[in-house]
């Protein structure tokens, strides 16, 4: 029996890195597809509807939200489809990931985001790497990113800890589509995506010098959301369970 335990421990040491590599690879692929959708639809929008910024934003938001829901559904069973360092950091804060796994996820997300931007550029005949000149800076825009990221984290972890896991892809996609319009920053809400979008001088791009402010705002929004989720959902609930069992008519 002792040799069986030793073999089992040895097997776990060998297979754990392989499983992590598969999950990190899924995160890289999913984030690449997400940024490809964001940047590619932005380029397509400016070509299909030139000088009509509102219509361009509508096209960009719709394509991004539709792609995001599909990517989460495809990648979720492998890695959980974080696709976002802010999500991974909050997941780590809840104790669902170790430090090594979180670092692997975040590294994969950033690499995937950069690759996705380059693929989008290539699809539309642009240089693979084209530093954006689109300056996005200032207090109101940073506040928009705080709000956008706060809402995204609240939706994801509120539904996760509330037991409504199966609806998360659609809720996240719907929230991002809406946040494109109700936030002053057009809702990047994702540090990896922000970094990737610096590599495309297009509708969806962001100047490299504007990226640090966005990333800081996104992390601030995630931190505030973490506190809100802890307050609203101190303990995860079983799937389909609601803590407030008071009938609606009794609250009127």
Concise description?
By secondary structure, the chain is mostly helical. It is 70% helix and 0% strand.
Characterization of the model:
The chain has 252 residues and is an all-alpha fold. It has a single domain (19-239), classed as Glycerol uptake facilitator protein (Up-down Bundle). It contains 8 helices and no strands. Helix 5 (139-162) packs parallel to helix 8 (211-232). The protein starts with a helix and ends in a 20-residue tail after the last helix.
The rounded Rg comes to 20 Å
Quote the average pLDDT. Answer: 89
The tally of strands reads 0
Q: Which architecture would the CATH scheme give at its second level?
A: Up-down Bundle
Task: Return the domain count.
Answer: 1
Instruction: Please estimate the helix content.
Output: 55-70%
Q: What is the general shape?
A: globular
Features:
single chain; mainly alpha; Glycerol uptake facilitator protein; 8 helices; globular; disordered N terminus; disordered C terminus
Give the arrangement of secondary structure elements.
Elements: H1 2-48, H2 53-79, H3 85-93, H4 99-123, H5 139-162, H6 168-182, H7 191-197, H8 211-232
């Amino acid at each position: 029996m002792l040799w069986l335990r030793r073999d089992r421990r040895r097997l776990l040491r060998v297979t754990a890195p392989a499983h992590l590599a598969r999950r990190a690879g899924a995160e890289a692929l999913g984030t690449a597809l997400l940024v490809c959708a964001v940047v590619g639809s932005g380029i397509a929008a400016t070509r299909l509807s030139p000088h009509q910024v509102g219509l361009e934003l509508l096209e960009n938001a719709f394509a991004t939200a539709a792609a995001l829901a599909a990517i989460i559904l495809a990648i979720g069973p492998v890695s959980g489809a974080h696709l976002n360092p802010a999500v991974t950091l909050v997941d780590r804060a809840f104790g669902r990931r170790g430090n090594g796994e979180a670092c692997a996820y975040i590294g994969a997300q950033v690499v995937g985001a950069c690759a996705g931007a380059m693929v989008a550029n290539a699809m539309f005949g642009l240089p693979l790497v084209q530093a954006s000149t689109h300056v996005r800076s200032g207090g109101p825009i940073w506040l928009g990113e705080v709000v956008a990221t706060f809402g995204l984290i609240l939706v994801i972890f509120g539904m996760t800890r509330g037991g409504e896991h199966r609806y998360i892809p659609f809720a996240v996609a719907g929230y991002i589509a809406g946040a494109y319009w109700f936030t002053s920053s057009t809702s990047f809400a994702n540090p990896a995506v922000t970094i990737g979008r610096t590599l495309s001088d297009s509708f969806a791009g962001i100047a490299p010098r504007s990226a640090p402010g966005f990333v800081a705002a996104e992390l601030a929004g995630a931190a505030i959301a973490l506190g809100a989720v802890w307050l609203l959902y101190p303990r995860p609930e079983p799937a389909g369970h609601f803590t407030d069992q008071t009938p609606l008519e009794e609250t009127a």
